Amino acid sequence: MDSHPSDKNLTLDSTHLFLSTQSSPPDSLIFAPIPRTLPPSKHIPSTRFLIDAFRYAADFSVSYFLSHFHSDHYTGLSPSWSKGIIFCSEITSRLLSQILNINPKFIYPLPIKIPVLIDGCEVVLVGANHCPGAVQFLFKVPGRNGGFERYVHTGDFRFCKTMLLQPVMNEFAGCDAVFLDTTYCNPKFLFPLQEESVEYVVNVVNRVGGELNEGLQKRVLFLVATYVIGKEKILIEIFKKCGRKVCVDSRKMEVLRVLGYGDSGVFTEDESETDVHVVGWNVLGETWPYFRPNFVRMKEIMVERGYDKVVGFVPTGWTYEVKRNKFAVRSKDAFEIHLVPYSEHSNYDELREYVKFLKPKQVIPTVGMDIEKLDSKHANKMRKYFAGLVDEMASKKEFLMGFHRGTSEIDENVEEGAGSGSNEGLSKEGEVKLKKTKATEDNSSSILLDSSSRLEEFGSKDVTALDDEETEKMVQEIRNCLPTWVTQNQILDLISSSGRNIVDAVSNFYEHETQLYEQVSACTTFISTSQTSSLDVSASTAKLNSDKTISQGSVKIPLSQEYKLPTIKHSIKSTLSPSKRKKTITNNPKKKGKVPSKMESSGAKQPTITSFFNKLLPNMSQGDVVESKSEECPKDENPLQSNAIKTYGEEIDQFLKIINGNESLKGYAATLLEKTKGNVSMALDLYYDNQEGDHGKTVNRLEFSKSSVQFDNCNKDCSSALEKIVSEELQHITDMSVQRPSKELMDPTLVSLPPEKYDPIEHACWSSGQPAPYIHLARTFDLVEAERGKIKAMSMLGNMFRSLLALSPDDVLPAVYLCTNKIASNHENIELNIGGSLVTSAIEEACGTNRSKIRDMYNRLGDLGR
After folding, report:
1. Which of 710, 745, 780 is where one domain is finished?
2. How many other C-beta atoms are found inside a 10 Å radius of the C-beta of residue 776?
């Protein structure tokens, strides 16, 4: 084992160190790729450093770090170890060589609090307040542009205030990730400080030992359960404050000698010298998952060693019962077991305080179930405990920075190609990529020019000049990340408000996307409706005045106000989506984030959601002027539709709510309900089946034609040609509904017929050659869910598949996957990645309800689908 020099600038090469241990070393080492199966908690990113991962040792690394000498961390080590260099503390290195008999040439001890350069990465060890020799590892890994990635690996540790006073810890505030000891990462674990627990043990020993020995003349034996290494603080305090030596077995004494306690006089192997004896961890009872005392074993020890009473101590956080007593006691006859909440792991509050101090970008749990996957259920649950304490914007910025880096790399490649005058330095594949990149940029530029040409025509051209090449380059980089409708003035405001930070500028844009879009759409809506209306107003009549306003008749729109970036408050970060934030402001300014919990409001809220995702520049049929006029005009309704509206009033309202329709579709809804005799489900089948054809276009044409006619009626200048269009469209819809086959009106319960009576072709709701409609599966699933008999349910599924085989055989396999709750076979590794939490949030957003109400309904119904 090498002794560590005192040089603070020590530089090590783990590959060179490993090769020096070989009798006939090769010239170099070839490392295999880091396997994906390696748990993330064992590997430091961008390095080949493995932490407490000896059982995963292979030919992809020779750099191994051991945080402390506990068997669950050094598993995989044996006297025959020769797979790499072990970096650890001085105390741990002695334990490895003297207790485990590891060859010292594979062990390299590192100093405490002194930076060491290993394989180009700076490594610092700091105390972990766990067992003797336990340390935390602080890594600085070289990154891009001369920067560093910083990682903290705590190993097993017990947080204490003194950790925050170490200067080196301040350097890791805001680190990229902390690999955290999450042994007690649960709010129920709030055990007291170590000092309080140690004081409790000392007081019990003094009190019970004095009473029994002096008053009743009975001998009492004190048993303290410990590991091979650990809990030494309790034993030393008993010696200091109770005046009693501590008896240990030969294995424990060997460890204590390595730690320097062999000649201290605190410990002895002679049982007769003291009444305080150390026993193995599970001698007094099992501690996991709940403590179960072993009074039988205690009685055997009492008789064997000649005592009248036994008092045991089990110092561990697992036995802490916060809802009962801080220090619980189990007793029977002459036996007592004190459950002492003494732990060498951090409790819940201490973990949160540590993470709050570090403010890392990410918390990676190192202890717990299923932590081999960072996105596992248990890992996500533990990370939620630190919500608000980590840098939640860091991952988003890193994602955006990826685009920024990609753009920079493309620019560099282009510049290099231009500088050489050819693409000689590029491979054919690179040339193809470069050509595609240039074509994409040219296409983007043409789209931007086209989308802004109308604004320039009316004087809304960006008039801000770019002051330097750097700003121009920043504008181009940001433009590549933003939608085409964003103006140059807005981009410049974003750059200014973000302190010329590209990532912050793009982040700010997406936080305020809706507001910025409304600025553009407010002006372009006016321009679009004016430019395309039937009035004889040409584009040349709109002039840019000297005060930068658009003149249209007597209306003036100040551009400087329309396009000004709204004030962005960086100190307030809302978790509401842009659509919900907009609803909150318009509906009830006094209540932030409060949404009405009425399920009936879904129809009114859906347009807000869809409009957020359908940001198309307004066209003539969506103009504000036309819509406002059409609402004020009286509607001329067909007499047949009027009767149907009166007859099926409630059904029509229900129909319109489901399809999220407006009043303009009321007549069409009445026509469908008249055909289906008031059956809303069948009317919906007709409606959605028509949408798959040309109904969507027909409705758009109809809505525009009707609004145009009503607009002209209000001005007493109605055109007979437009009336003819409306009548033709109405007749087309009616004829289409009548002539369309009535397959979709099939009774949805036909699939429940016995197999011998079910006709897979005649009883299906679609025809041969057509894609199988999802409603075929949905109806079957609905019937199967309500059916308790397995034979009957199997018959329904059989009928469903018979129709699929007869009419749409290509849809059989997808249907099989859907029946087994999958979308593809297992080997394809295709998942929706949609869990209950995401579905609940979507329902909350779409239906305008709140999470508590959804939870109550889920508890009552037992299924999110219902």
Report:
1. 745
2. 22
